[in-house]
Amino acid sequence: MIPHILIGKGVLERQKADFVALPIAMGTLGTDPQFDRLNQAVDGELRALAQQAEFAGRADQVFECTTLGRLPQQRILLVGTGTDDAREEARMRNFAAVAVRHGANSGALRLALALPPKLAVEQLRAVAEGVILGAYRFTKYLTSERSPKRQIETVILCGLPKETVSAKRAIEVGQKIGQAVTLCRDAVNEPSNVMTPERFAHTASNIARRHGFRAKVLDARGIDRAGMALLSAVGRGSRNEPRFVHLTYVPKSRPKKKIVFLGKGLTFDSGGLCIKPAAGMDEMKSDMAGAAAVLGVMDAIGALTPPVEVHGLFVLAENMPDGNAYRPGDVFGSLDGKTVEIINTDAEGRLALADGLAYASKLRPDVIIDAATLTGASMVALGKSCSAYFTADEGWSSRFKLAAQMAGESFWQMPLLAELRDQLKSDVADLKHTGDRFGGAITAAMFLKEFVGDAPWIHCDIAGPVLADRPKNMYPKGATGHPVLTFIRLLEALG
Ligand code: BES
Ligand code: MN
Ligand code: ZN
Fold first, then answer.
1. Which pTM value belongs to this model?
2. Which superfamily, per CATH, for 4-159?
3. CATH number given to 179-493
């Protein structure tokens, strides 16, 4: 159940709720009228208590205290929204998510959010997104006393001038986008024994049916017949056979742009014959997070109906060691025609994507965007919270950067270094698929670049941020749903 979102009527001090939450920007405690009113209601103690607890309004910082029964709300929650360099939209989304998550963890059923006056509709939409994102938990496999007992039922948005049509619409769209992100999170959190390539393909077809998209699904034979020999090679060591899925959304009006999203969908990555160490191997159930993000985007499209033609491509496989598995030293063809020498079977993602990119470029799109948990090296470069993106097109780079900022997701551009291309030279085939250890995220991107043709292309290496070790801002522990919001913002900027 997702919380109901209501627009509060009357002043904040009249809303009955378990919690009232107020956003506080860094260093602004006590400077806004809503805070003053709450502060007065508790005899001016709120300010002193928050200061004593060293609440400064840092992003993700919270302070909670009782209202002593002097307000219709039991408790006051202050949520830090950080400094001005983050966009207002992202700060509002984080505020709502943190408030709802905190309230839910304390067993609240009804929450009032105090919104700043003159909130723009985009920010209101972001608040609705944040409510859904903050309420999310993956509880499917928790039984008896572990199953959740209480969850937030109602979130009241206070301080909006009045209930206009555009406000209602913004909230509705925000909820749908929030749900698209949680759909992505669910797919990533789902264990690999359940979320097989076949199951993923079913999930994608269901979404297509729900929204009226065209859907094409290729099974192992279909993949071979289509000439996607690299995807086939990656998947051949598993009894859970690979799939390729192509969803198409065509707008009612003449499309302004054609865009392809491609996701890496390794439903499990054991490393294959070049098997990974046991420690941390469980995290490789999330090696389909790129594909899950594309699924989230396609789901959001059903709600947004943008004037853009959108293709969602999914390369789905399980990388396993087996008598039939592909080996280091093997040579395979590809959809593009180039031959590839296999070096390390754990560098499977770029192989699956290579065929996906060749397929994408045949669609002659205005831009191809891929998302992949591709390299540990991207995490060495940027840490666990920031994704790398690569593109040779500066126009697309700045559009992408802006979209990420509005989404409140962390991305940093890395270079496609031509001088590292030499590492991919093979003696027996057109290309080998890995280089040396240094610059590993870049050589992976350089390998992919061989398969995109001339279409403008953005490659996102999202290995770090798709899983979080602890909750932070709009991201919960576990699957975060990164980079669904960024992709949605980018898509909207094209319409
Ligand atoms: N799926 C992994 C990358 C990864 C590692 C994602 C850790 C998230 C957390 C990818 O398939 C992989 O194994 N990459 C190798 C490439 C290497 C063998 C060239 C890597 O990064 O170690
Ligand atoms: Mn791997
Ligand atoms: Zn992988």
1. 0.97
2. Leucine Aminopeptidase, subunit E, domain 1 (3.40.220.10)
3. 3.40.630.10
